[in-house]
Amino acid sequence: MRGPRALWQAWVRRSRTKSPWIVHFDCGGCNGCDIEILDTLMPRFSAERFGVINVGDPRQGDILLVTGPANLRNAAVLRSVYDQMAEPKAVVAVGSCAAHGGVFRGAPNILGGVGELVPVDVFVPGCPPTPERILEGVIAALPLLAEPRTARQATGGPSPMSIVMLEPREEEVVRVPAS
Amino acid sequence: MSLPGLPNLLALAALVAATALAPLSVGLLLGVDRRVTAAMQLRAGPPILQPWYDLTKLATKTSLPVDRLAASLLVAHVVLAAGAVALVLAGGDLIAAVLVMGAARVLFILAAGAVESPYAQLGASRELILLLISEPLLLLVAIAYGGVAGSFSAAAVAAAQAPVLTLPTLGLTLGVLLAIALRKSPFDLATSHHAHQELVKGSTTEMAGFWLALAEVGHWYETAFVLVLIALASLAAPLVGIGLVAATYTVAIVADNTLPRATWRSALWIGWGIGGTAAVIALVTGRLFGAGGL
Ligand code: SF4
Predict the structure, then answer these.
(1) Best residue in A5, A8, A19 to probe B by mutation, most B CBs within 10 Å?
(2) For residue A60, what is the domain's CATH number?
(3) Beta strands in A4-147 (DSSP E)
(4) What is the pLDDT of residues B125-138, one digit of tens each?
(5) What's the total number of domains in chain B?
């Protein structure tokens, strides 16, 4: 029989993982990923069944969905959006740009993936990823929301920097035909 | 304390428990609401306990800096809103309860306007418009009840035989009030979690974590207040009351789904036009045929 304190803690963990409010931030990709994110939040893919709500205020958000490459222009903005979010929070990098700079990699203003600036928890592959994959990425981040990042290590939960890589599917791999 | 005090203590405990449970049951109702709305849009919708999950999550977030003035106003808002609901549950004066609820909502508007965000201030002024629509209607409802029961005390209204049957048009007014309390339509005034309002967040823009949870509880109390008013009219005929609530709620959801772009002007016209007229008709019939008749 669990005591009331343990029951309350279990309820809190459950609530936190069942109420992921999303902050969507575009670092400046081609907007392909952003269109897919908007798609994900529409009735067709019904993200609301996981408790997802799109919020406009980082202070009210739990999951930061970032698209586009980290770049000099808005590095400070991304960092500030991340810092404004209250723990427990998680970061999901959507698309190749957010993972490593994508097609923009090597351009003079590009720093690389958003991992250069904020601790990314889940990488969603694709250029752009399908809405199902984005939703999959959000779901992969849910267990991380049970506890604040600093407490995760202490209690043996997922470590502060545990990174989830969604495996690319067959159709997402681009093969160069043999000449 | 002497022995006869015990029943009083028990009654007090029951009152406190009922007041504490009121917002929780509203949360459950809102969960059902989100499911029904989702079904209308051919979606699965969140779990029925979703509003409780959201509230717990918000309340247990690590603390964020908050505007001191806004925070104290929010606390006062929730205390007054709970007080208004408790006043009705205790059988107290309806007019006083309506005014206390009005004061609670003014405190919320002040809390929203106390911060610098232009969106919060825009939201605050829009809340003011909603208050302008609903407060006179609430007063009219209280006066109509008083006309039937011959007294403004909630206990007397509950004891009067089914005022809802004497005042059939009052259902319309209560429906309008419920729709306003739910904050779903009109879209340029709405602040609900349903993703179709003009401002992503208006009055609650600068609130986060625990403070947003407080604002949510205050909102649940406001909804509970309208629901308690509906229940008051139908205590003698609970089935009629449940039917009335279900009907008004369904109408509110259907209206919300079919008129997603209704603006505050239409809210004002529907609110004062339909709700106000219905309340005045109820008031007159109540005076003519009720216990407090001419
Ligand atoms: S990953 Fe591809 S689709 Fe997404 S922003 Fe970058 S270039 Fe556009």
Answers:
(1) A19
(2) 3.40.50.12280
(3) 21-26, 53-54, 63-67, 70-71, 90-94, 110-112, 122-124
(4) 888 888 888 888 88
(5) 1
